[in-house]
């Protein structure tokens, strides 16, 4: 699983990495007197999000009422409730407003799914005069009266977000509710998170600055409940694969695959992971991602310029039939593929992510020329590996729609590919993107591209206030792709249908339900905002 990386061992940085590197350089030390990262304000001794914190909505100390949430600095009724006489109530279960405001149930009756009844149905619990399912009810999550905060959902009796995005530039995590596409308050977390995963309601975050795997509960994103060492040496842990009871992490600087095992719960309430072993994949291999087929891990090897990429442009296979004694089996070369170079020029596969599906293992190829500024010099492509024979074939994603294929995920019987595109960066404006092409999504079915989505900021490049968008990694929830933007910090929402990509939140289609989500704020000191990763918790 891949994204533009903030750190790299390379003496030459591809354009797809420049925005992330700029984000790292620009973050630096805060201005004198400031203690919070951009987008957060100081309230007392805490850093809070005035746009999304119900206790400090729009201003410090301005608390929203019971049942309200804060969106864009204004209090309002949370999803699933409506205002009745100035109070936010759940008309599906409130006996005083059962089914509609003012429709009170008679004495002794209870309200269930908006209907007054004599008793609760089987599987529902009585809370006052309400009949609820405490496994999914946001107002009574796990127990009567336990109200989930802001836009969190109730999953199996625990409050949490549907998705979480990581803001590398700002050092924050932000939750997203899938049904409404509303954002929770941003929370400071870690110091250099660049990869996310989830397990059992917890967010796992690989932090490059501390070389640790950090954990937070899905409903308390600002609190680290467990941290596990990723080798103790400064590196670039840039992908996490959860395969219970194990977790695998690759590091592109230290060239390693690390195995951790759950033995929890740990002190503090985390998963209770411990490091089991580590496999060195070879000097200058720069492993990028992990996909699992049967008992074999497939790890794309990008390679390094210092070694002229002779140890990259390949996929390593690691046998994990015994996960506590993993063994590198072989390496599948990708250099024999027809990469369809533009004008016959130089191009290398430079693989960046992988996914296993019923049809085989698919590897996203950036198809760059590392000797000419890492520019795309061929269309974005996929390599398809037959796990049985090891045979490799290529899928052309089309240069008009896709350059620099960076991330691939299976959605049902289809594949979605994020194309990072070709971007030009303005050094005078903090290395923000000044022009972008070939960035967006491609839908692949039966090994052929069938639809494309062009990422658009909805403004003219160079216009005042226009911040272009550059695709990064994505997560899938409820049949939609949540695509991170590594330049302007947005999250785009695109529904995946049979043979179609339909924009839900963005600016490319008049049918969109609203603009892209402003997940990671941009400020005047940091014109680049790297929304680096997204993970789905449920």
TrEMBL record:
NCBIfam families tied to this protein: C_rich_MXAN6577 (NF041328)
Name of the protein this chain belongs to: Lipoprotein
A Pfam family that the UniProt record links to this protein: Stig1
PROSITE patterns recorded: PROKAR_LIPOPROTEIN
Keyword Signal attached: yes
Keywords: Signal
Keyword presence, Signal: yes
Record organism: Corallococcus macrosporus DSM 14697
């Amino acid at each position: 699983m891949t994204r533009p990386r903030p750190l790299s061992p390379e003496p030459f940085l591809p354009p797809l990495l420049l925005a992330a590197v700029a984000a790292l350089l620009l973050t630096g030390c805060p201005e004198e007197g400031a203690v919070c990262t951009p987008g957060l304000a100081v309230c007392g001794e805490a850093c809070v999000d005035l746009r999304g914190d119900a206790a400090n909505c729009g201003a410090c100390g301005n608390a929203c009422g019971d049942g309200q949430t804060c969106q864009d600095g204004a209090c309002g009724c949370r999803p699933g409730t409506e205002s009745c006489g100035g109070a936010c109530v759940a008309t599906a279960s409130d006996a005083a407003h059962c089914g509609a405001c003012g429709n009170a149930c008679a004495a002794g009756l209870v309200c269930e799914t908006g209907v007054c009844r004599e008793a609760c149905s089987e599987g529902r619990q009585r809370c006052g005069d309400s009949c609820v399912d405490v496994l999914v009810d946001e107002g009574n999550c796990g127990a009567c009266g336990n109200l989930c905060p802001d836009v969190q959902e109730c999953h199996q009796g625990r409050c949490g977000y549907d998705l979480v995005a990581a803001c590398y530039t700002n050092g924050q995590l932000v939750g997203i509710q899938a049904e409404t596409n509303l954002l929770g308050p941003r929370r400071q977390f870690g110091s250099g998170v660049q990869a996310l995963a989830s397990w059992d309601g917890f967010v796992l975050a690989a932090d490059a600055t501390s070389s640790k795997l950090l954990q937070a509960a899905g409903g308390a994103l600002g609190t680290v409940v467990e941290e596990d060492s990723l080798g103790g040496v400064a590196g670039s842990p840039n992908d996490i694969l959860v395969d219970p009871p194990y977790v695998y992490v690759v590091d592109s600087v230290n060239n390693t695959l690390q195995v951790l095992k759950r033995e929890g719960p740990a002190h503090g309430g985390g998963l209770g992971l411990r490091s089991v072993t580590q496999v060195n994949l070879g000097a200058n291999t720069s492993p990028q991602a992990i996909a699992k087929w049967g008992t074999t891990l497939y790890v794309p090897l990008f390679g390094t310029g210092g070694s002229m990429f002779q140890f990259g442009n390949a996929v390593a296979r690691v046998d994990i039939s015994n996960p506590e004694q993993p063994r590198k089996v072989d390496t599948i070369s990708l250099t024999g593929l027809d990469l369809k170079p533009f004008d016959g020029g130089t191009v290398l596969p430079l693989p960046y992510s992988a996914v296993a599906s019923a049809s085989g293992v698919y590897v996203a190829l950036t198809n760059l020329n590392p000797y000419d500024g890492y520019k795309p010099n061929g269309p974005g492509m996929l390599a398809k590996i037959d796990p049985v024979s090891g045979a490799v074939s290529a899928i052309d994603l089309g240069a008009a729609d896709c350059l620099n294929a960076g991330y691939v995920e299976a959605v049902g019987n289809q594949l979605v590919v994020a194309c990072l595109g070709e971007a030009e960066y303005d050094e005078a404006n903090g290395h923000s993107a000044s022009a972008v092409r070939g960035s967006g999504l491609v839908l692949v079915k039966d090994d052929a591209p069938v639809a494309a989505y062009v990422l658009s900021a909805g403004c003219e490049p160079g216009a005042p206030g226009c911040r272009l968008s550059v695709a990064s990694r994505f997560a899938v929830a409820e049949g939609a792709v949540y695509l991170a933007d590594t330049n302007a910090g947005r999250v785009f929402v695109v529904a995946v249908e049979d043979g179609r990509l339909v924009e839900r939140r963005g600016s490319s289609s008049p049918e969109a339900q609203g603009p892209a989500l402003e997940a990671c704020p941009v400020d005047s000191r940091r014109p680049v905002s790297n929304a680096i990763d997204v993970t789905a918790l449920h």
